[in-house]
Design brief:
The chain has about 475 residues and is an alpha/beta fold. The protein has a single domain, classed as Alpha/Beta hydrolase fold, catalytic domain (Rossmann fold, 3-Layer(aba) Sandwich), CATH 3.40.50.1820. It has a ten-stranded mixed β-sheet with strand order 1-2-6-3-7-8-9-12-11-10, with helices on both faces. A two-stranded antiparallel sheet has the order 4-5. Bound molecules: 2-acetamido-2-deoxy-beta-D-glucopyranose (4 copies). One 2-acetamido-2-deoxy-beta-D-glucopyranose binds next to loops.
C-alpha cells in the first residue's frame, strides 16, 4: 500500500485531492475568492476586534528570525490593576499550523462566522462567548518560526527538535514580558492543542530547568500547563486507534486486525529509532482508517464535513487584515506550513512523556480531550497517562471521575488529584473550543483559578474534618 496524502496532527490541508475536502468546502472556498475580488470590504478587521498588541518577537538578532504574536488583554479582569491577572499563552499544533486558527476559529475573542450578504456567503468576525480572554490576558504565538506569520530567515533555521523549539519560545516569551512592565509578575499558563502536546511540555520543561539559573527579573513566572487533544507519547498513542474505532463500530474485526498490523509497524519503527519511517507508518494508520471509514474527518467522527479552519487562511490573505495586525503585506499566510511540517517530520514519533513526568512534580497540569476525536482522543491520552512514572499516579487513577456541568448542562467529566487534572469534553472533537466554546472557557477559568471541580480536595477534606 502506498499513501500520498499529507497529514497533519492539527488540521486538514486544503488539498483538492484530499479525502478530507468535500465539494461543499470547495464551493465555499470559491465563493470567498470570488467575493473578495468583487467586494473589497469583506473580511476586514473592525477596530474593536483588533488585538491589544500584535507584531514580532525576535528570536535571533543575527538572522532576523522572529515569532509573530497577537495579544488580547482581559476583557473583565478580577484585578483591575492587571498586575496579577493571569496570562494564557496558546500554541497551535501541526507541526507548522498557525495559532491564528486558535485565535479566529476557536478560543479568541472574535471568531470567523459565515453569513449571507446579498445572497453571497462571506466571513464575518463575531464576538466569541467562550473566549479565553474574558478574565485572563491571552497571547497567541505562531510557533515554531516559519509557521503562520512568523519569520524564518532560512529554512535551515527552522527547529527540527523540541529543544530548539523550546529555546526559541523561551526567548519570545521573555521578549513579550519585557514589552510592558505590568506583565512582569503576572502568572503565566502555557496551553495548546494537538502537536502542542509536544511543545507545551517542552517549553514548560525548558522554563523550569532554566529559571533557577537566571536572576529573578529574567525568570518566566510559570504557573501551569494545559494540553488539549495532544500528541505527547506517540508510541503509546498510535497503538490505540484500532480498538477505539472498533468499539465505536467504525471498522469490523478484519479491518481491526489490518489496522493493528499497521500500528505495530509504526511502533516497531519507533522502538528502532527509525524516526522518519515511523512517522510515515503512523500516517499509514490514519490513511487506512480514513479510507476504511469514509468519514469526513478523523478529527470528529460525528461530522459530515470537515472543520472549516480554511476560513482563517482566507481571512488572513487580505492585505488590510495583515496591515492591521502589523504584518508585511508580502507575507504569505498558510494555516499550516509544509516547510515546518517537513522540518519536524522526524520529531513526530519522539515521546516527551518524560518531560510531563518532571512537570507534574513541579507545576500543575491539565490534559483535556474532546470525546469524538479519532486522532488524539481520550483513550489515546489515558493510555499514556497511566504509564507515567510519578508518585502521585496511583492516587490519580483511584480518584473519582466527577460529572461536570456548565450552566446546568452536562459538559463532561473531570478527574483530578494533586497537580494533574484530566477533562473529557462531551460533544466535542479535536477542536474543543470550536465545538464547545463556553464549556471550554469554564474549564480553563476554573482550572486556572482552582475553582469548583478543580478546587483542592485536600483542603476541602481538611475543613470537613474540623
Ligand atoms: C541564531 O542564528 C545563528 C546563525 O544561524 C546561530 O548560530 C545561532 O545559534 C542562532 N541562535 C539561536 C538562539 O537560535
Ligand atoms: C527504516 O525502516 C525501513 C523500513 O520501513 C528500512 O527499509 C530502513 O532500512 C530502516 N532504516 C534504518 C536506518 O534502520
Ligand atoms: C481503500 O478502500 C478500498 C475499498 O474498501 C480498497 O479497495 C482500497 O485498496 C483501499 N485503499 C487503501 C489505500 O487502503
Ligand atoms: C505538585 O507540585 C508542587 C509544586 O507546585 C510540588 O511541591 C508537589 O510535590 C507536587 N505534587 C506531586 C504529588 O508530585
Amino acid at each position: 500500500m502506498s499513501f500520498t496524502k499529507i497529514e497533519s496532527d492539527h488540521i486538514e490541508f486544503i488539498n483538492l485531492s484530499s479525502m478530507e475536502s468535500t465539494p461543499f468546502n470547495l464551493l465555499l472556498f470559491l465563493t470567498l475568492l470570488f467575493h473578495r475580488h468583487t467586494h473589497s470590504s469583506a473580511s476586514t478587521l473592525p477596530k474593536e476586534a483588533l488585538p491589544t498588541k500584535s507584531g514580532y518577537l525576535p528570536v535571533n538578532s543575527t538572522t532576523g528570525s522572529a515569532i509573530f504574536y497577537a495579544f488580547y488583554e482581559a476583557q473583565n479582569p478580577d484585578d483591575t490593576s492587571l498586575s496579577q491577572t493571569p496570562l494564557v499563552i496558546w500554541l497551535q499544533g501541526g507541526p507548522g499550523c498557525s495559532s491564528m486558527t486558535g485565535n479566529f476559529y476557536e478560543l479568541g475573542p472574535w471568531r470567523l462566522t459565515p453569513s449571507l450578504k446579498q445572497n453571497v456567503e462571506h466571513l464575518e468576525l463575531q464576538p466569541n462567548p467562550g473566549s479565553w480572554n474574558r478574565i485572563f490576558g491571552l497571547l497567541f504565538l505562531d510557533n515554531p518560526i516559519g509557521t503562520g506569520f512568523s519569520i524564518a530567515s532560512t529554512p535551515e533555521e527552522i527547529p527540527t527538535d523540541q529543544e530548539s523549539v523550546a529555546r526559541h519560545l523561551f526567548i519570545a516569551i521573555r521578549k513579550f514580558i519585557a514589552l510592558d512592565p505590568s506583565f512582569r509578575y503576572r502568572p503565566i499558563y502555557i496551553t495548546g492543542e494537538s502537536y502542542a502536546g509536544k511543545y507545551v511540555p517542552s517549553i514548560g520543561y525548558y522554563i523550569l530547568k532554566r529559571n533557577p539559573l537566571l536572576p529573578l527579573s529574567k525568570r518566566v513566572n510559570l504557573h501551569g500547563l494545559a494540553i488539549g487533544n495532544g500528541l505527547t507519547d506517540p508510541e503509546t498513542q498510535v497503538g490505540t486507534h484500532a480498538l477505539q474505532s472498533y468499539y465505536h463500530g467504525l471498522i469490523n474485526e478484519k479491518q481491526k486486525t489490518q489496522l493493528e498490523r499497521l500500528q505495530f509497524e509504526a511502533i516497531q519503527l519507533t522502538k528502532a529509532g527509525n524516526w522518519s519511517d515511523a512517522t510515515d507508518a503512523r500516517n499509514n494508520v490514519f490513511s487506512f482508517l480514513q479510507n476504511a471509514t469514509g468519514l469526513a474527518t478523523l478529527f470528529d467522527f460525528r461530522r459530515y464535513r470537515p472543520y472549516d479552519s480554511i476560513w482563517v487562511e482566507e481571512f488572513l490573505k487580505n492585505p488590510e487584515v495583515k496591515k492591521a495586525l502589523g504584518v508585511d503585506e508580502s507575507m504569505v499566510f498558510e494555516k499550516c506550513s509544509k516547510v515546518v511540517g517537513a522540518a519536524l517530520h522526524s520529531d513526530v514519533m519522539k515521546s516527551v512523556r518524560f518531560k510531563v513526568e518532571y512537570l507534574v512534580k513541579n507545576t500543575k497540569l491539565l490534559l483535556f480531550q474532546g470525546q469524538c476525536d479519532l486522532r488524539d482522543g481520550v483513550f489515546a491520552a489515558e493510555s499514556w497517562m497511566k504509564k507515567m512514572k510519578w508518585e502521585g499516579l496511583q492516587k490519580f487513577l483511584d480518584a473519582e471521575r466527577d460529572i461536570w456541568y456548565v450552566n446546568g448542562g452536562l459538559a463532561g467529566y473531570v478527574q483530578k488529584s494533586d497537580n494533574l487534572s484530566h477533562v473529557v469534553v462531551l460533544a466535542a472533537g479535536h477542536f474543543v473550543s470550536t465545538d464547545q466554546a463556553v464549556n471550554a472557557q469554564a474549564m480553563i477559568e476554573d482550572w486556572i483559578l482552582d475553582r469548583s471541580l478543580f478546587a483542592n480536595k485536600y483542603i476541602q477534606n481538611l475543613f470537613m474534618d474540623l
